[in-house]
Structure formats: C-alpha cells, structure tokens
Design goal:
The protein is of the alpha+beta class and 106 residues long. The protein is 30% helix and 11% strand. It has one domain. It is built from four helices and four strands, in the order H-H-E-E-E-E-H-H. The strands form two sheets. Strands 1-2 form a two-stranded antiparallel sheet.
Length: 106
C-alpha cells in the first residue's frame, strides 16, 4: 500500500483532514494525528509569541491549479525544524505546481 503523501488525497481523506483542522486547539493538542514539535530545533526563531507545540494535516487549495491537497503534519514539522522555515508559513501551492515553478519535473 502506498503512503498517502497528501498529493492525491481521496475525498474521504480530504474530508477528514478538513474536519480535524477545524477542531479547537485544545482538542487538537491530544489528537492522535498531531505531530509534536521538537522545540530544541526551533531555537532559531526569535519571537515573543509561543512556539508551535504540534502540527496537524492542513488542507489547502493550490493557488495555481486549484486542486485540493493536504500539507501533511510531518512535512510541516520538517519545514519548520529542518528547513528553518517561518512558523506561520502555510503551503499555497501543490507539489506539482511548486516543481513546475522551479523548472523541475514533478
């Protein structure tokens, strides 16, 4: 069975991701799909606000092609902790459109 990367989610997977993303933060914190942040890897962030405690799968509609995709929690964790991306960043393009903009094959 192929791992669901969020690139081609089924209607039911997308619906569940939307449902989970709409839950209040106190419920999300203990949700089984929440991926906890490693705050030791977020020390590069200079903010007076709170650092993220966790990530959950986030549905998105691609800005370029309009397809609905999912920005997986593990990918968000990688983006913030390893790629040192901004903690408030949100994916706006799907993988295929990002690769096309970079001039690479998807």
């Amino acid at each position: 069975m192929l791992k669901n990367t969020g690139r081609n989610p089924t209607a039911s997977v997308l619906k569940e991701a939307k449902r989970i993303a709409s839950l209040p933060e106190h419920v999300l914190r203990g949700h089984p799909s929440a991926v906890l942040s490693d705050k030791s890897k977020l020390i590069y962030i200079n903010t007076y606000g709170q650092l993220p405690e966790f990530s959950v799968d986030m549905p998105l509609t691609c800005r370029d092609c309009g397809k609905e995709k999912i920005w997986k929690a593990a990918d968000q964790k990688w983006y913030c902790e390893e790629a040192k991306g901004h903690i408030d960043a949100c994916a706006v393009r799907c993988h295929d459109c990002r690769m096309a903009r970079k001039g690479k094959n998807a």
